[in-house]
Amino acid sequence: MNVRSPESSPLLGHCPPSLPAKAYYDGAWFDRESMAIWARNWVYAGRIDAFRPRTIRRIDIAGDNVIVACDDNNALRAYFNTCRHRGAELCSAHQQDYNGRLIRCPYHAWAYDNEGALVSTGYATPTHDFDKALHGLFPVALHQWNGCVFLCLADTPPPFEPDMGVAALDNWPMDRLVTGHILEKQLACNWKVFWENYNECLHCPGIHKGLSDMVPIYRKGIMSDEEDADWSADQGHNAALKDDARSWTVNGQACGPEFPDLTPRERAIAHNFVTIYPSTYIVAHVDYVRIVSMTPLAPEITQLRAEWLFLPETLAQAGFDLANVTDFATTVLLEDGAACEMNQRGLKSSRFEQGRLMPQEFDIHAFHKWVLNQLEPWQ
Ligand code: FES
Ligand SMILES: [Fe+2]
């Protein structure tokens, strides 16, 4: 769900078609998306503190895989996971240690420095026609932002341009936050089904009872005041959460000190959604932040991951009740996951060819246009 604040209604003036059914299960369509979308855009690889000095982590993206090496100085560099000798994997485990200086191939011991330059051919002595300088590792673009690591497989990555929702994250202490809880779940749905569900709240009254109680406007099936036919800009904005609630927690209270630098408007928003297609969205609350990311494993299988981030002093509070925080959004995510799987099963019907979007589904329409635009050069 995205929140926005244009002065005029964002509702669509028509009911456009959805994507064709095969976009959600066809193998050829999935392969085209892997190449045109997942291999060409910035994909979330994790929080910076998940990369430990002197380790190499392997990360799968778009059917390829990448190693991220973290040296003694916490500097991160990413390479395709293939040796220039005969192509062996440099890292076969999820994570492995190295000495912080040389990335060594486990097959015949070719070694590369942290810049990816080939420095040793192990036990083999090449003849003069072999130029070491031409046999460095293949680099992968790496971008650090707000304590997060993003990778892009493209030779020429696009600009890193998250959709910042209502408020940029500038006033959230993103670099200081640490991961307090992780939820991982495999969903039996196409990755786009999950994004579509994220991009509308028509399902909220029926699917999310607890969330709709917490966020009154969701009871109307809309995401923001601007979508409400009765709202005009001169009325100002309604409080995002129900009376006395401060955050998305089971008891509605902030789980620790509120982030000190937020503006009154940022506090009132209560849940600022930042969207980074195709892999990630971030929900920034007044007291904690949640990062939700997805990895398509197959046309109808998507790996979902959610991370809850806190100030260290919040986690260190005596008697800190982590479940009071994590249970709330876990319930929402599991409700969404079940809805997505229900959607996936139904759109496999032999009679279903294509859906129709409602005016409130303007963000889904924008998402579809983004997907088709990305695929266009590859049709
Ligand atoms: S394949 Fe890597 S050293 Fe031979
Ligand atoms: Fe939802």
CATH class of the largest domain: Alpha Beta
Low-confidence stretches: 1-6
What is the terminal separation in angstroms? 29 Å
Radius of gyration: 23 Å
User: What is the chain-wise order of helices and strands?
Assistant: EHEEEEEEEEEEEHHHHEEEEHHEH
The CATH topology of the largest domain, please? Naphthalene 1,2-dioxygenase Alpha Subunit, Chain A, domain 1
- Structural class computed from helices and strand pairing: alpha+beta
Question: Which assembly state applies to the chains in this document?
Answer: single chain
Largest sheet: 7 strands, antiparallel
Shape type? globular
Structure at a glance:
It contains eight helices and 17 strands. It folds into two domains: 17-39 and 162-378, Alpha-Beta Complex (Naphthalene 1,2-dioxygenase Alpha Subunit, Chain A, domain 1); 43-152, Rieske [2Fe-2S] iron-sulphur domain (Rieske Iron-sulfur Protein, 3-layer Sandwich). The chain has helices spanning 27-38, 191-198, 204-207, 209-214, 264-269, 312-315, 322-347, 362-375, and strands spanning 17-20, 43-47, 55-61, 64-70, 76-80, 95-97, 102-104, 111-113, 118-120, 139-145, 148-152, 178-187, 272-276, 280-284, 289-298, 301-310, 354-356.
Explain what this protein looks like in three dimensions.
This protein has 379 residues and is α+β, with helices and mostly antiparallel strands. It has 2 domains: 240 residues, Alpha-Beta Complex (Naphthalene 1,2-dioxygenase Alpha Subunit, Chain A, domain 1); 110 residues, Rieske Iron-sulfur Protein. It is 21% helix and 25% strand. It has a 7-stranded antiparallel beta sheet, with no helix packed on it. Strand 4 and strand 5 form a beta hairpin. The longest helix has 26 residues. The two termini are 29 Å apart. The N terminus is likely disordered.
